[in-house]
Write a structure and sequence with these properties.
4-stranded antiparallel beta sheet
Length: 121
C-alpha cells in the first residue's frame, strides 16, 4: 500500500501565499504522476496541477501564473506553491499519486486525506 501525507493548508488572506506538501510512503516501486486536486463545497473535484516523473507539468487555467508544482523524486514528495490566492481558491486540496507497488503491478491512483485551504479576509 501507498500512503500520502499532506501538510501546509490553512487560512490566508486574499493575495497571500501557502505551500502544500505531500509525501508518499509505503510499498512504493515507482510513482508516475503526482498531482493536486481540489474540491470546493457543492462542486466537483478538479485537477489543479500535475507533474510527471520526468517533469512534465500541467495546470488548470485558473491557476496558471499563480501556482507552481514541483517534485522531489528522491523523497517521493510533491509540492504546490500557491501565490496570489483568491477566495475562489478555497477548497479541500487532495494529493494524488499514480503508483506501482511492484514491477509488474498495475498503476493505481492513491489519494491523500485532503487539506483545507481557506482564502478569506
Amino acid at each position: 500500500q501507498v500512503q500520502l501525507e499532506e501538510s501546509g493548508g490553512g487560512l490566508v488572506q486574499p493575495g497571500g501565499s501557502l505551500r502544500l506538501s505531500c509525501a508518499a510512503s509505503g510499498s512504493i516501486f515507482s510513482i508516475n504522476v503526482m498531482g493536486w486536486y481540489r474540491q470546493a463545497p457543492g462542486k466537483q473535484r478538479e485537477l489543479v496541477a500535475a507533474i510527471s516523473f520526468g517533469g512534465m507539468i500541467t495546470y488548470v487555467d485558473s491557476v496558471k501564473g499563480r501556482f507552481t508544482i514541483s517534485r522531489d523524486n528522491a523523497k517521493n514528495t510533491v509540492y504546490l506553491q500557491m501565490n496570489s490566492l483568491r477566495p475562489e481558491d478555497t477548497a479541500v486540496y487532495y494529493c494524488n499519486a499514480e503508483a506501482r507497488i511492484s514491477r509488474f503491478a498495475p498503476v493505481y491512483p492513491y489519494w491523500g486525506q485532503g487539506t483545507q485551504v481557506t482564502v478569506s479576509s
